[in-house]
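Dear U.,

For the methods section draft, I wanted the exact inputs and outputs in one place so we can describe them consistently. I've listed the two proteins in the order they'll appear in the manuscript figures. Please don't edit the token lines directly; just add comments below if something needs changing.

First protein:
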Amino acid sequence: MRPFSAVHFLVVLVIFVMSMLTVRASRRGHFSPRTLRCVLGFLLAANELFRYWHDGLHFPNRLPIHLCTVASWTAVYACLTLSPLAIEFVYFVGLSGGALALINPDLPRRVQSDFFSYECLRYIAEHATLVIAASVLVFGGIASLRRGAIWRANWMLVLFAMVLLAFNLRFGTNYMFLLRKPGNPSLLDWFGPWPFYLFAAELFAILLFGLMWMPFSRYSPRRTSNGLRRNK
């Protein structure tokens, strides 16, 4: 799947339509919220577990600590428990990270030329499921965001990045592209050289989170004691 090719645009469009249809079905009560959460959680977990079985794990370069991988497991937890912090992380970090990964995919050139390869299909499935799950949880009438969610999500992201940066420096890895930019053209190319692009990326994340909060800025839904409207 070559970035910005006709096939790429079609894939992104299909995922967007699937997200909107699933959100609409959830809001109209076509599916039980509990059932929908369990199905999404199962799909997320199954995708990750199959990848570990197929690709294996190896220290330190092949560990399940990529940002979208952690967001996917957090989404599983959010689907099963409706934890407010987990939902905030999944919405702001998971949805934005998954969407950006689909819009500007970081795939090896050999994979870009073979849409039906395992690597390409797995990449699409992982990020598409994450985007759909985050959208349904928040826009599907299952849970509501609390005030201050932007800053909690941002601090969780910064803390995770700091831990990964220490890990990268210790073991020579490059999780989250904290030491080097990806080999393919990416948004980070606009943010200057290392380490300045790290600070620019943080400012961009805050701006993006602010835009994602706008649909809720004037909306004050009824909340339970923990800040969520729980639909079983």
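Second protein (the one for the lower panel):
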Amino acid sequence: MHSMLPRLISTALIATTLVFAGSTLPTPVAAQTPATETRAPNPSGLPIPRWVSIRASEVNMRTGPGARYPIDWVLQFRNLPVEVVGEFENWRQIRARDDTTGWVHKSMLSGSRMASVAVARARVMQKPDSGSPVAAFVEEDVVVALDACEPEWCRVAIASHGVEGWIPRAALWGLYPNEIVTP
């Protein structure tokens, strides 16, 4: 019993020292950085957020940035547009259209610009004009390749069906407001 007393006192002193030392630690760098100052570059050097697409036909979306983290979702659609919202080493935190977020390895992503139809039924027009002839109708969630985007219209292609044309940008998910996409 007496041999336990020095160990308990030693443990109490260490705990007390840590509590007091913790109260004198400097404020984290993020809390010190003014909003106007730029942050350190992310691992890729590319902007965050940004749009990318899924490269493989099956991609494991994990709860954290690493293979040791459990798989939360399996994305089973090649070319699906996703938004990169974070980076850690070789891992990218992505957000899907339904706001699901998770981590995937960077090798599973492509820089190809894709978008998904965000309305029940969209008309693909032959020209960027609502009075133009209709080239095709596409349903919600159909993935299209973004060839170019102007302020009001995006030139798209659906290679699997040989369809090319223009869709109002408001009918698409996978680009930022006022973003201009060039060929």
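Candidate sentences for the figure legend, describing the second protein: The first strand starts at residue 50 and ends at 54. The domain at 115-173 is CATH 2.30.30.40 (SH3 type barrels.).

Thanks,
Y.
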